[in-house]
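Let us work through a complete example step by step.
Step 1: write down the sequence.
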Amino acid sequence: MSLRAIILLLGIATLAGAQAPARATVATHYFYWYHWPSEHFGEPGAPGPEGHCRHFVEPAKVSYRSVDWHAQNFAAMGGCGIDVALPVYWGAPGAYDRPNLAFARAGLQPMVDALDLLAAARTPAPRLGLFYDTSTLANDVRGAAPAHGKADLTTAAGRELFCSTVTDYFAAIPQRHWARHRGGALAVLYASGFAAKWDARLGTAVRAAFAQRFDGDQLCLVADASWGDIGQDLTTSWGAALWGAQLHPAVAQIGAGYDDRAVPGRNTPVREREDGAFYAASWQRALRHAPELVLLETWNEMHEGTELCATREGGAQYLDATRAWVQRLRTGADPGAPIALRWTAPRPQPDLAWGREASGAPAVSVDYGGKDAVRSGLREIAWADGPCLLRDGALRAGTAADGLGSYLYFQVSDHFAFDVDARFELEVVHAAATPLGVEFDAAAGQGALDGSYTRGQSTAVRSAGDWVTETFALAHARFANRQNGGADLRLALPQRTAVVRGLLLRKLP
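Step 2: predict the structure and record it as tokens.
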């Protein structure tokens, strides 16, 4: 079918007045990093013919360099009543020519050309906001030094990097295509974890840079909740496709489901779509919240199974559903009786790639006391608030960043126990001078993370010189990989230090 025919067909199904001002703005995250067959195709889990997730209808026509491909996506969004496309922008001043970032700039002019094409055909289409994928604040992504570092947004250089990324993007988009909310160009920030530091002045800095570059124009800044208070206009939270509707004052972020099992090395829980019921239930919560901004997560992130766009396997199911729910939003229709979901929380996935020796064993352990660590169905997991190092026959706590807690994380082999409800006993051999507690993943409540950091009960302590063996009771342990880094338990360190010789975890009748 020709592009013109697609445009005419979608135009027939478009909501009347979809481009007219509405009481709520509907936006969706638009992943445009695809280029057949070499970029984000072909690797395991990719949305091409060799991948295992849902697929584009015509993958060979998918490219961020293609005006037609962008036009088809924008026309489909317009047909659903979506006001704003939020291109997922991996921009970074000074690094735009890096192979991993080149698409970010190369894809912008084809988007503009696509919107001009649709405007000439009088086909409703979204305007362009910005989804600043803050992954580019990590030095390794930008090719900056030091390796593994992160941008410090409290410094002049860090603020310049942040602000220029935002303004460079909007400078590449003609103002006639800017999406606006509350009178300002709409910019949405991804999570803060890729920055080393930031403070409450960040919002003021980016607004000032925007006004200076665009002759006093305004910015509407929407920040992920992980940023805290940086002077944003509105707040949202990433992860609605997995955890359910994320509701903040005047904002609702929702998604249709999450499934990244096709991507090697991932063990993220799966949010079942339940044939559209999860999406519908999320829309119901959004409508009851009466937001002024709705963020749909995502239009086409195929690797993680969050897409709303048409697919080879699912057809136009989620286009039709989005159109119907947006119409309810526009008309103020009743959201309907609450939908009962079969899965009230994401389904955890086992990690069976290691620890096979623990299958059927009565206990698992890790021993750091010899020349080399001996792990049998139990292993340490390093994390931001749980850095660790092996030295002198012990596992030692590293120094966590200011503002974070201090822990040592451990993962239990899923061959030994996974997503259970059972009693266990944990013995920890540690230096007597460094007290600690245990928090473990327990079966409790219906929420996605309920019980995942349950406090274990210390029941006995045996001393042997500078060392103690402390025993903890773990009742109703679940061990579903729900702690940070996929861990099942962690040692809480009140003195922010610990020296651990080993752990033994045994099943109880």
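Step 3: interpret the result. Residues 66 and 110 are 6 Å apart (CA to CA).
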